[in-house]
Amino acid sequence: MMKTAVIYATKTKHSKKLAQAIGLFLDITVQNITENPVLDDVDLLFIVGGIYGGASMPELLAYIKTLEAPMPKYAALVTSCASGSQKQIAVCNILEEKGIKVLDEFVCKGRILFVSATHPNAKDLKAATDFAQKIVAGGLK
User: Fold this and answer.
1) Helices (H), the chain
2) What are phi and psi of 108, to 5 degrees?
3) 92 pairs with which residues across the strands?
4) Measured between alpha carbons, how far is 43 from 124 in angstroms, rounded to an integer?
5) Is the Cβ–Cβ distance between 63 and 95 less than 8 Å?
6) DSSP label at residue 100
7) Distance, CA of 54 to CA of 130 (rounded, Å)
8) Judging by beta carbons within 10 Å of its beta carbon (0-12, 13-18, 19+), is residue 35 exposed, middle or buried?
9) Model confidence over 108-130: pLDDT tens digits?
10) CA–CA separation, 51 vs 87, rounded Å?
11) 79 has a pLDDT exceeding 90
12) Which residue range(s) make up the domain with 19?
């Protein structure tokens, strides 16, 4: 059986909401990177984070750099950003340098100040869980 984990990094609690929705769907406890989660024997890691000022959180990047291959073997990224389109390129690059295969990335609209104040909303949370279901159902190759 594939062991899956969900971690998140957040300044605004948006990523926490997305991570919790995925965790609830997968029936696993999500972990904040500030708790320095240990990911022993993880096959698939969902990494949930936001884009702040055009970049991933430095704390998330620092945590990702501590991961040791071959565990986790695979990762899927879930990103919240004001534009609804910017990806976590730096996170992806670090993972790939470590030999961790990035399967896909889901990006949803986030909020900046009062713009898009309703995000992530129920539709975003459903889309995030649909993404997780697609990743898990797709099997790992």
Assistant:
1) 14-26, 58-66, 89-97, 122-137
2) -125, 160
3) none
4) 25
5) no
6) P
7) 26
8) exposed
9) 977 655 545 565 889 999 999 99
10) 8
11) yes
12) 4-137
For residue 99, the one-letter residue type is: G
Query: Residue type at 140?
Result: L
Structure tokens at 102: 């990035």
| Placement of tokens 């100040």 in the chain | 113
Whole-number Å distance between alpha carbons of 17 and 1: 26
> Token pair of 68, please?
């040791």
Phi (first) and psi of residue 8, to 5 degrees: -145, 160
The Cα–Cα gap between 27 and 22 comes to 8
* Residue (of 4, 64, 63) closest to 34 by Cα position: 63
Condensed to tens digits (0 to 9), the pLDDT of residues 28-45 reads: 999 999 999 988 889 999
Q: What pLDDT shows up at residue 40?
A: 81
Is residue 79 within 8 A of residue 90, CB to CB? The reply is: no
Handedness of CA 75, 30, 137, 41 (dihedral sign): positive
- Domain count for the chain, please give it: 1
Interval 86-110: pLDDT, tens: 899 999 999 999 999 999 999 997 7
Identify whether the C-beta of residue 47 lies closer than 8 Å to the C-beta of residue 78.
yes
